[in-house]
Each structure stands twice: as structure tokens, then as C-alpha cells.
Amino acid sequence: MYLIHAAPKKIKLILNILKKxxxxxxxxTKLPDYLFxxxxxxxxxxxxxxxxxxxxxxxxxxTTFLKDAGRISELIKKEIYPPGTPVRIVGxxxxxxxxxxxxxxxxxxxxxxxxxxxxxxxECPPSEVKKxxxxx
Length: 136
What we know:
This protein is an alpha+beta fold. It is built from four helices and nine strands.
């Protein structure tokens, strides 16, 4: 993941150029002078934009910045578990219990959780769900 920082007018021009490249995923932020892309954008931009903008490799040290920018959930690698995937709940109210993914509701997984022999429905954010072997 790469972070691009430039003046807001330049960012708009850079955004228009990068949106035309099929292999790139471009993420806008709530901050008008930052963009994120999934691969190094330097080879797709004219030299004057590369020298005018600051392009940095995203190493994960921008966590607070990303949270403030409102895009951290889109940028952090998260696995997509299809319906029927057995999972273990690793955080929240049902931590330690197992379940089966039934689908997604917005950014959260709908999970049928086995709690002391009863099957309950829970909505869990991706950070609280880990894929596991079916053992219940």
C-alpha cells in the first residue's frame, strides 16, 4: 500500500490519472491532500507529479493517521469469509466461542455462534473473527 501526499488540487489531478489504470485500487480519504493506492503509483504518473507529490510505502506506522482519515478498515488486510466458513470469535462479547459465517451486514459478519449448546446470531467486525477448522 502506498500513501500519496500533495496539495489538494494536485491530488485531484493524480486521482483522475490513477482511476484510469485498471490494476490500481485508489482510496480517497476524508483529508483532501492524501490518497492511498495498492501498488507503487510512480510508474503511472507523469514525472512532474511524481516530483511534486510525496509517495511513501505504507508500512503500517500510519495507523492513527489512517483511523483519522476514515479508511483504516478498507486498507488493513482483512480476509473475506464466505457463508459457511467455520470461525472462532477472538474478541467482543462471544470471545472464545466458535461459529459459522452466515453472511455480512455492512462491515460486520453475521455469525451463528454456538454458546453452551445454544445457537445465537452475532454481528462481529472482521477483527474479532478468525477462520478455523470445524470442531463443533
